[in-house]
Amino acid sequence: EPEVTQTPSHQVTQMGQEVILRCVPISNHLYFYWYRQILGQKVEFLVSFYNNEISEKSEIFDDQFSVERPDGSNFTLKIRSTKLEDSAMYFCASSYNSPLHFGNGTRLTVT
Amino acid sequence: AQKITQTQPGMFVQEKEAVTLDCTYDTSDQSYGLFWYKQPSSGEMIFLIYQGSYDEQNATEGRYSLNFQKARKSANLVISASQLGDSAMYFCAMRGPFSSNTGKLIFGQGTTLQVKP
Fold first, then answer.
1. What would the pLDDT profile of A21-77 be if each residue is shown by its tens digit?
2. Which string of DSSP letters, residue by residue, matches chain B?
3. Which residue of B has its CA nearest to A88?
């Protein structure tokens, strides 16, 4: 069964550094998403992407965040200047209709 | 605005027994979808079951069933014959109108289920 692939599984970075989280959605899916989950807490919506543009973003998704689909297969989340509070599990998801299929997540640790 | 509420932070169930995980929601939309996901300790999000707001019958997927009570705005997950591997965090989620081109899900706070041998 096709799946959403995320790399890396774990990333450690220093505060103020830029990070790029990578995702390969399921190939025939049209909608792409990033969510984050601070340890043990609820899963929070960050951004949705459709037809090569952001279709919706949450208030968490400020100017420090950006998304790209550079080559028709990858879907990336960039955090420009990481803060300690960006430490979380970041999930990529994709869908064609429903439901959303999630990747295994990237655990980001900001020190 | 849409809202999902899971009022049980933690639940215990004896192996082989059934358990119900509660979920209530609030929305002014007429069309919406309700989902349950399982998150084991390894961290991945596993889709379990889906119920559309216009579906007249409760959804079932193997040992999982969704007790959908539209008037009460509840979408409880029932797991029959619990197994040790069911120990995990369970999230209820809602998606807005199908006409929306975002398809985003709003998640509840989650319920941690522990199955006792």
1. 999 999 989 999 999 999 878 899 999 999 889 999 999 999 999 999 988 889 999
2. --EEE---SEEEEETTS-EEE--EEE-S-SS-EEEEEEE-TT---EEEEEEETT--SPPEETTEEEEEETTTTEEEEEE-S--GGG-EEEEEEEE--TT-S---EEE---EEEEEE-
3. B43
